[in-house]
């Protein structure tokens, strides 16, 4: 022991240079040595510590917990995190030193201040939590912002499209919306505009297929006074010019006549245009979105649509799948339109789950528009509050007979076909006499079959 005391007294000034704390206790836990770093960690003079038992210092609250008793108890190296009375946090390691007989002679303790690392870690964790929360909130807000516009997108395909729209909408990139009639190209074009940087500007839709060729040019590009006979004296601003600072939506773009395709290409490339009969170049700063339900790529291949214009418009293509490929959306539309129609007409019509089933499995060639019109007709024309599949018109009600071979007898299959035919004809004509006449059976047989099949679920 005296050798150790000798070493300490000889080298203590060297250990005082150490950033780390250095403490030695005897085999009972009484402190023999502490270097200057202890003053920074505990806020007391080194002299105050020397000669005290480590548990006593712990009781005084100078640090907590004490590591030396743990090393003495477990007779091995122990590392813990310690809090001190002046708010420091340290990582402390206590190493027992054994004598020749296996008794613990000394405990050598080393401690490093990790308050800053620990504070930084805590701050980093808080910041990470905050970033996570903000990004979740941002996603919800983004979703809501588009959903506010009434866009229904429950299916995976539509969710992916909405994610893409959220990404591209704030940029000014040119988008081409592709898809069958009534899939929602117009709705999505408006949605893109409403979350774009140009949302304060106008949204100008041009139906390239609806305006007759000769009129289209002056509608699109406007004209100067006296540009042609019959032109207004004041001249006219075209739709392209009106879209300045906003979005120009070229609906049915595949129907644009070839000569106007050239002029449109100039608008996109040069970002400027000229009125009919004009000589002045007019700057046009508009985001361009186009849409078509035609196979425009084949049209390009057949030289019916300019390839250069196609590539300018087709920068971000978004293909909207037909309704038959996204039954989750059909279900959501039924709920959405059902609620809207009931409120609008002040009625309370419900669809039986089986009716919803039939509608979800229907093909809907006219897509959302057809479904919307169909529901309006259905809710207004059926008297009963709960609409069952029998109330559905023939074209929707007509089920395809799906016969898994070996699972049903011929009689069962024939009876299902008969049921469909009888009920369909009965629904159309509403009388057993007419059913009999249409199907070439007696009125009694017709009546019996109608009653039988009407009663069956
Ligand atoms: N995702 C949707 N959410 C809400 N309503 C929709 C959605 N998709 C379509 N609709 C509704 O369906 C109808 C047809 O949509 P829209 O006019 O956008 O289709 P379109 O693809 O532009 O059709 P077309 O090719 O015939 O011009 C509109 O009444 C629209 O409100």
Automatic annotation (TrEMBL):
<dbReference type="InterPro" id="IPR058031">
    <property type="entry name" value="AAA_lid_NorR"/>
</dbReference>
<keyword id="KW-0067">ATP-binding</keyword>
<dbReference type="InterPro" id="IPR002078">
    <property type="entry name" value="Sigma_54_int"/>
</dbReference>
<dbReference type="Pfam" id="PF08448">
    <property type="entry name" value="PAS_4"/>
</dbReference>
<dbReference type="InterPro" id="IPR025662">
    <property type="entry name" value="Sigma_54_int_dom_ATP-bd_1"/>
</dbReference>
<feature type="domain" description="PAS">
    <location>
        <begin position="7"/>
        <end position="65"/>
    </location>
</feature>
<keyword id="KW-0058">Aromatic hydrocarbons catabolism</keyword>
<keyword id="KW-0175">Coiled coil</keyword>
<dbReference type="InterPro" id="IPR009057">
    <property type="entry name" value="Homeodomain-like_sf"/>
</dbReference>
<dbReference type="InterPro" id="IPR025944">
    <property type="entry name" value="Sigma_54_int_dom_CS"/>
</dbReference>
<feature type="domain" description="PAC">
    <location>
        <begin position="74"/>
        <end position="126"/>
    </location>
</feature>
<dbReference type="GO" id="GO:0003677">
    <property type="term" value="F:DNA binding"/>
</dbReference>
<keyword id="KW-0804">Transcription</keyword>
<dbReference type="InterPro" id="IPR035965">
    <property type="entry name" value="PAS-like_dom_sf"/>
</dbReference>
<dbReference type="InterPro" id="IPR000014">
    <property type="entry name" value="PAS"/>
</dbReference>
<feature type="coiled-coil region">
    <location>
        <begin position="110"/>
        <end position="144"/>
    </location>
</feature>
<dbReference type="InterPro" id="IPR030828">
    <property type="entry name" value="HTH_TyrR"/>
</dbReference>
<feature type="domain" description="Sigma-54 factor interaction">
    <location>
        <begin position="151"/>
        <end position="380"/>
    </location>
</feature>
<dbReference type="Pfam" id="PF00158">
    <property type="entry name" value="Sigma54_activat"/>
</dbReference>
<dbReference type="InterPro" id="IPR027417">
    <property type="entry name" value="P-loop_NTPase"/>
</dbReference>
<dbReference type="GO" id="GO:0006355">
    <property type="term" value="P:regulation of DNA-templated transcription"/>
</dbReference>
<dbReference type="Pfam" id="PF25601">
    <property type="entry name" value="AAA_lid_14"/>
</dbReference>
<keyword id="KW-0238">DNA-binding</keyword>
<dbReference type="InterPro" id="IPR013656">
    <property type="entry name" value="PAS_4"/>
</dbReference>
<keyword id="KW-0547">Nucleotide-binding</keyword>
<keyword id="KW-0805">Transcription regulation</keyword>
<dbReference type="InterPro" id="IPR025943">
    <property type="entry name" value="Sigma_54_int_dom_ATP-bd_2"/>
</dbReference>
<dbReference type="InterPro" id="IPR000700">
    <property type="entry name" value="PAS-assoc_C"/>
</dbReference>
<dbReference type="GO" id="GO:0005524">
    <property type="term" value="F:ATP binding"/>
</dbReference>
<protein>
    <recommendedName>
        <fullName>HTH-type transcriptional regulatory protein TyrR</fullName>
    </recommendedName>
</protein>
<dbReference type="Pfam" id="PF18024">
    <property type="entry name" value="HTH_50"/>
</dbReference>
<dbReference type="InterPro" id="IPR003593">
    <property type="entry name" value="AAA+_ATPase"/>
</dbReference>
């Amino acid at each position: 022991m005296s050798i150790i005391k000798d070493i300490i007294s000889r080298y203590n000034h060297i250990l005082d240079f150490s950033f780390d704390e250095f403490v030695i206790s005897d085999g009972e836990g009484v402190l023999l040595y502490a270097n200057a770093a202890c003053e920074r960690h505990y806020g007391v003079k080194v002299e105050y510590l020397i000669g005290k038992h480590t548990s006593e210092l712990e009781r005084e609250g100078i640090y907590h917990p004490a590591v030396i008793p743990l090393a003495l108890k477990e007779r091995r190296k122990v590392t813990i995190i310690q809090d001190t009375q002046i708010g420091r946090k340290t990582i402390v390691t206590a190493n027992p030193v054994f004598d020749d007989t296996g008794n613990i002679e000394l405990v050598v303790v080393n401690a490093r201040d990790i308050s800053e690392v620990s504070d930084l870690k805590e701050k980093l964790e808080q910041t990470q939590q905050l970033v996570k929360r903000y990004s979740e909130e941002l996603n919800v807000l983004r979703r809501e912002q588009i959903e506010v516009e009434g866009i229904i997108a429950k299916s995976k395909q539509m969710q992916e499209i909405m994610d893409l729209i959220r990404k591209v909408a704030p940029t000014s990139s040119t988008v081409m919306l592709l898809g069958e009639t009534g899939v929602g190209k117009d709705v999505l074009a408006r949605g893109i505009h409403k979350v774009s940087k140009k949302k304060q500007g106008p949204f100008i839709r041009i139906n390239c297929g609806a305006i007759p060729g000769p009129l289209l040019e002056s509608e699109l590009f406007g004209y100067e006074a006296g540009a042609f006979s019959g032109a207004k004296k004041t001249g006219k601003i075209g739709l392209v010019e009106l879209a300045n600072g906003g979005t120009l939506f070229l609906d049915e773009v595949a129907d644009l006549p070839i000569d106007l395709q050239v002029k449109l290409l100039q608008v996109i490339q040069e970002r400027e245009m000229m009125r009919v009969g004009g000589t002045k170049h007019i700057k046009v700063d508009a985001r361009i979105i186009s849409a078509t339900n035609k196979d425009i790529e084949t049209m390009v291949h057949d030289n019916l649509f300019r390839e250069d214009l196609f590539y300018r418009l087709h920068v971000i293509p978004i293909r909207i799948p037909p309704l038959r490929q996204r039954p989750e959306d059909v279900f959501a539309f039924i709920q959405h339109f059902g609620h809207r129609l009931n409120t609008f007409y002040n009625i309370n019509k419900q669809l039986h789950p089986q009716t919803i089933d039939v509608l979800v499995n229907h093909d809907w060639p006219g897509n959302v528009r057809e479904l919307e019109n169909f529901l309006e007709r259905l809710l207004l024309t059926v008297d009963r509050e709960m609409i069952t599949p029998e109330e559905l018109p023939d074209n929707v009600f007509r089920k395809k007979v799906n016969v898994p071979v070996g699972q049903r007898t011929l009689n069962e299959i024939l009876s299902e076909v008969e049921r469909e035919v009888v009920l369909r004809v009965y629904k159309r004509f509403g009388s057993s006499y007419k059913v009999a006449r249409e199907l070439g059976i007696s009125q009694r047989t017709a009546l019996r079959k109608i009653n039988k099949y009407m009663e069956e679920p």
